[in-house]
Amino acid sequence: MTPGATAEQIRDVNTRYHDGAAAGYDAKWGIDFGEIGQGQVLGKLGKLLRGDLGPFGDALEIGAGTGYFSLNLVRAGIVTHATCTDISPGMLATLQTNADRLGLEVAAVACDAEALPFEDASFDLVFGHAVLHHLPNLDRAFSEFRRVLKPGGAVAFAGEPSRYGDRIASYPKRAANRMAPAWRALMRARPAVEGHSDGGAENHQLESQVDVHAFTPQDLSRHAKAAGFEEVRVRGEELLANWFGWTNRGLEATADPDTVPMAWRQYAYHGYIALQRVDRALLEPRLPPAIFYNLMIAARSPC
After folding, report:
1. What letter does residue 227 receive in the DSSP assignment?
2. pLDDT for 217-250, tens place per residue?
3. Which pLDDT value is given to residue 209?
4. Phi, psi angles (nearest 5°) of residue 216
5. Residues 6+ away with beta carbon under 8 Å from 256
6. In a 3-state reduction of DSSP, which class is residue 241?
7. Using CA atoms, how far apart are residues 170 and 188, in angstroms rounded to an integer?
8. pLDDT at 171
9. Surface-to-core class of residue 151, CB atoms within 10 Å of its CB (0-12 exposed, 13-18 middle, 19+ buried)
10. For residue 55, is the peptide bond before it cis, meaning its omega torsion is within 30 degrees of 0?
11. With DSSP H G I counted as helix, E B as strand and the rest as coil, what are the percentages for the chain, rounded to 5?
């Protein structure tokens, strides 16, 4: 985001970018609503809540996008009633299409996370994935999360970029950019049209402006505690898997997706899953959260 941008400018660019990117979002990020997607979502929520997977009667997702978390949690029986919010009407339209295709009933509400249109103590769980770093005023947002949570309810957010991990991830991204021409020649893949996965070249230019924050663990913890949350926990997620994933994603982003061989896609997917397991079993329990690419935060509303 441009330094000095106002909160209203931040909200506006996020709305415009995500509206334009909504149609191709699931394909760009490999979002899945089957066994694979459920496994990923339940794995993240399980880590956040220390294995407590509900079920939760009323759950609110912040920045629901196209429904990756909410729809997978409803399908798995972890959430009974999901309210899906996003500042982007375009994203929510795609979410509703996905829900209809899957035969799921959810409530989709376009709103600002810093001014939620819900009564106090309405939800058992407030959660989100890769959304906090888009929000201009995190203190106000966390205060809203606590307000709409029932006493003893849980808040859980995953996929937030860490300040140090984001710097580390820049190395595989730059390496992928340098290797891309040779990789496309080896794969016999055609170059991508600029913005092909983001709703066109003009909308693609907005992508670099939508991220507002990269966090330290202390940053996230401070915002939650200032809102009055208890049992605040921050942990890191994915180190090797993200280095591997960002390298491959950087390469793939330069190619027409229809010309990338299936053998490559299988290699990239299975390699990522294997390294994710290594991260989960060996690195995440032992290394400080700050060095991981992603941070996760969970807390409880006071009873």
Report:
1. T
2. 999 999 999 999 999 999 999 999 999 999 999 9
3. 76
4. -95, 160
5. 189, 190, 191, 192, 193, 196
6. helix
7. 26
8. 87
9. exposed
10. yes
11. 50, 20, 30
Q: Mean pLDDT lowest for which of 13-17, 105-109, 269-273?
A: 13-17
- Report yes or no: 229 and 142 within 8 Å, Cβ to Cβ: yes
The one-letter amino acid code at 102 reads: L
Residue (of 159, 44, 25) closest to 98 by Cα position: 25
| Per-residue H/E/C for 125-179 | EEEEECCHHHCCCHHHHHHHHHHHEEEEEEEEEEEEEEHHHHHHHHHHHHHHHHH
Work out the average pLDDT over 268-289. Answer: 96
In 10 A of CB 272, how many CB atoms?
Answer: 19
- Would you tell me how many other CB atoms lie within 10 Å of the CB of residue 9? 14
100-126 pLDDT tens trace = 999 999 999 999 999 999 999 999 999
Residue of higher predicted confidence among 199 and 232: 232
- Those residues with Cβ within 8 angstroms of residue 290's Cβ, 6 or more apart along the chain or in another chain: 162, 163, 164, 165, 216, 217, 236
Q: Is the dihedral of CA 89, 90, 93, 94 positive or negative?
A: negative
Query: Residues 131-169: pLDDT tens digits?
Result: 999 999 999 999 999 999 999 999 999 999 999 887 887
CA max distance for the chain = 60
Which H/E stretch holds residue 108? strand 107-110
Q: Is the dihedral of CA 126, 130, 136, 139 positive or negative?
A: positive
Compute the half-sphere exposure of residue 96: CA atoms within 13 Å on the CB side of its CA.
Answer: 12
The model's pTM: 0.93
> How far is the C-alpha of 99 from the C-alpha of 167, rounded, in Å?
36
pLDDT of residue 276: 96
